[in-house]
Amino acid sequence: xxxxxxxxxxxxxxxxxxxxxxxxxxxxxxxxxxxxxxxxxxxxxxxxxxxxxxxxxxxxxxxxxxxxxxxxxxxxxxxxxxxxxxxxxxxxxxxxxxxxxxxxxxxxxxxxxxxxxxxxxxxxxxxxxxxxxxxxxxxxxxxxxxxxxxxxxxxxxxxxxxxxxxxxxxxxxxxxxxxxxxxxxxxxxxxxxxxxxxxxxxxxxxxxxxxxxxxxxxxxxxxxxxxxxxxxxxxxxxxxxxxxxxxxxxxxxxxxxxxxxxxxxxxxxxxxxxxxxxxxxxxxxxxxxxxxxxxxxxxxxxxxxxxxxxxxxxxxxxxxxxxxxxxxxxxxxxxxxxxxxxxxxxxxxxxxxxxxxxxxxxxxxxxxxxxxxxxxxxxxxxxxxxxxxxxxxxxxxxxxxxxxxxxxxxxxxxxxxxxxxxxxxxxxxxxxxxxxxxxxxxxxxxxxxxxxxxxxxxxxxxxxxxxxxxxxxxxxxxxxxxxxxx
Length: 486
Prior knowledge:
Structural class: mainly alpha
Number of helices: 19
């Protein structure tokens, strides 16, 4: 942990050198999606790319904004939390909560969605970084690392944009006057760019984990080559390129840097299962602790409810019932609270993040279990169903870690159903996986037509794409709203 604190302190001090410029370029007067004119003395000036320390500050600022200034990847406004409400993972205990209700009842409009402008502001920042790193005449010792990290970040941001918003503007440079004229690009073109960025990042990034000095580190808070490879595996699964998905996942699995650990250790800061994670900034901790735990006792006294502790959701009954008997994930990743006055009333909460102490846990974006499930599904689609190096063997790695027996699935359809089930109980409430999986497998209308009425809402196919802010449509007449929204 000494290395971690040293690196954070160093990177954050460098970040502060440029935070004024970042705030100007990312926030002040920039409420519209792509209306991001550069101020005088902005981060694109030559000085920001004259030394490794300066460039490190710029790139560190990208990760800082991903976690701290944008709550897109952790907390109440994150894709993970909001899409868990939107689908069938969470039960709303606070129907009067106006921030939660539209997502829970599948009734969101453009005013409810905050991720679109947040992601594009960071994409603008990554574009500035890519341009600055590529054009600098300075002799940067760690130029490959900085450029690879920026390209990875842009790909990661676009992955979420295209999965939640469908066709999106493909912004690849920092000229705001041109960017603000762009319409939606087809998803296929966006995926093509994601793959191009990740392929380039693979060639630039080291297999080792690095810190803000460019030095080898034990802390997994900056993406390395395997992180780019893991995202490529995920993208190829999305695009149905099964052989490529298998190959990329295999490359991650083959790395000696990663191993499956017990569920109790999966989300700890030093977990060997972590491929890449976003680090909270001191003195903070992973926000999911506050969403689902918030020091709520195991027994609620008197008339207290979970909402008395600002916990507004619990696991849905359908998700809770999806766990098989003896599944150690249920005992390690789900906690309960019961009512002292009514002991039969038991609430079940996600409990992957258990600590409110800085540095104990990281916000995990990629972990090894997902790569086994990606490879399992890719192999199943290629009819590599049973035996060694098969869909079954990969699926059983995840099941064995959970204390379960081997899958009984043999036929392709049964195997794909078994993998989908395993993804549900392994990846629940993480990173928007359930929403993305339901769409990717063509199951979203089938499932949500049943689920939405149970939550007090209705479902229509257009709701698989989220709306964009109305202000962006006014600012850029080449943009169109997602079909079905006002």
